[in-house]
From TrEMBL:
Domain Glycosyl hydrolase family 13 catalytic: start-end pairs: 36-345
Organism listed in the record: Persicobacter diffluens
Biological process per Gene Ontology, one example term: oligosaccharide catabolic process
Official protein name in the record: Glycosyl hydrolase family 13 catalytic domain-containing protein
MF-aspect GO terms: alpha-amylase activity
InterPro entries: GH, GH13_cat_dom, O16G_dom_2
Family, per entry: Belongs to the glycosyl hydrolase 13 family.
């Protein structure tokens, strides 16, 4: 087993067994030491009280001195920041509070001079309600009308989707589906044929669905061409396996050194879908391993395995990990964060 250690979050990675079928992954990955940065709170250089990309650039030597050689940057795209930047208004533009696209390109260049890789956070499942795509969709613009999931009317929301739709937004008849907050309209990657029950559910190969997928691939290529070294994909399962298999094929062919790591929570499924690695942390065994009381307040023990008192239990974690490892070995990596922006620190 190899470890990728971060000073802000830890990735414990099970190395693929390279016996049998060959498995390609970026050559730098097995020696990567990751550091996650939320730009807003990292380093402010213009005195407005908000961190910025120039601030990250100014601290690259510091990161290098810590042994960091890979940085995961939380979303820095244009956004109203309803959800810390995980509500993207423009995937192709750096948020004004953080700087400019030229600043991002400078960050890539300066990081590479120091042997540091830059991984961007890619929000694939939804945009902001302020996205021009969504505004056009809410106006029934023919190009964008099906890029988001809308019902035919406001009054017949299926019971199985209760609480998932926002009613009465804009002039368009119907309700739109959200992914999390009301301000995050869900992008429409289509539905498998065996799941389609309603007229508003489009198939995976619908022309408008395919147009959206192509545009999202263009976003990835845009930032790779600008100098990024890969992506950590937020809520990766939102886009479906077929999309990621296509993306991985493109990466292997055109960007073989670029990383794809997912927040899927099911490594076997994520790796099978094309990711090099997947976060494995949304399960109770993980909470047993680390000190995560707030996840399971009804647990009578609430002990971390690493607690000094020695009252923790690693059994459930090992059971889940072993199951995923057996299904991913030789194919990809399992990533176990100690902490990140979604979780309290150990």
């Amino acid at each position: 087993m190899r470890t990728l250690i971060s000073l802000f979050f830890l990735l414990v990675i099970s190395a693929p067994v390279l016996l049998g079928q060959p498995y390609h992954y970026p050559s730098w990955l097995s020696q990567a030491v990751f550091y996650q940065i939320y730009p807003q709170t990292f380093k402010d250089t213009d005195g407005d009280g908000i961190g910025d990309l120039q601030g990250i650039i100014s601290k690259l030597d510091y990161l290098d001195s810590l042994g960091v050689n890979a940085v995961w940057i939380s979303p820095f795209y244009e956004s109203p920041f309803c959800d810390a930047g995980y509500d993207v208004a423009d995937y192709y533009k750096v948020a004004e509070r953080y700087g400019t696209n030229e600043d991002a390109e400078m960050l890539f260049i300066e990081a590479h001079k120091r042997g540091i890789k830059i991984i961007l956070d890619f929000v694939v499942g939804h945009t902001s309600e302020e996205s021009p795509w969504f505004k056009a969709s809410s106006q029934n613009d023919p190009k964008y009308k099906n890029w988001f999931i809308w019902t035919e009317d406001n009054w017949n929301i299926p019971k199985e989707y209760a609480g998932k739709f926002i009613i009465g937004y804009g002039p368009r008849e119907g309700a739109f589906m959200t992914n999390y907050f009301y301000c995050q309209p869900k992008l429409n990657y289509g539905f498998p044929e065996d799941q389609i029950k309603y007229d508003w559910q489009l198939p995976l190969d619908h022309p408008d669905v395919m147009a959206l997928k192509n545009e999202m691939k263009n976003v990835l290529k845009f930032w790779l061409k600008a100098g990024a070294d890969g992506f950590r994909v937020d809520m990766a399962g939102s886009a479906g396996a077929d999309f990621w298999k296509d993306v991985r094929s493109t990466f292997d062919r055109e960007y073989p050194e670029a990383l794809l790591i997912s927040e899927w929570g099911e490594p076997a499924m994520a790796v099978e879908s094309g990711f090099h690695a997947d976060f494995m942390h949304w399960f109770k065994g993980y909470d047993d391993l680390f000190h995560k009381k707030w996840f399971h307040k009804d647990d009578p023990t609430q002990h971390s395995f690493f607690e000094a008192a020695g009252k923790g239990n690693i059994t459930e974690f090992l059971r889940s990990f072993e199951s995923q490892y057996e299904r991913t070995k030789g194919k990809g990596f399992i990533s176990i964060p100690v902490d990140n922006h979604d979780m309290v620190r150990v």
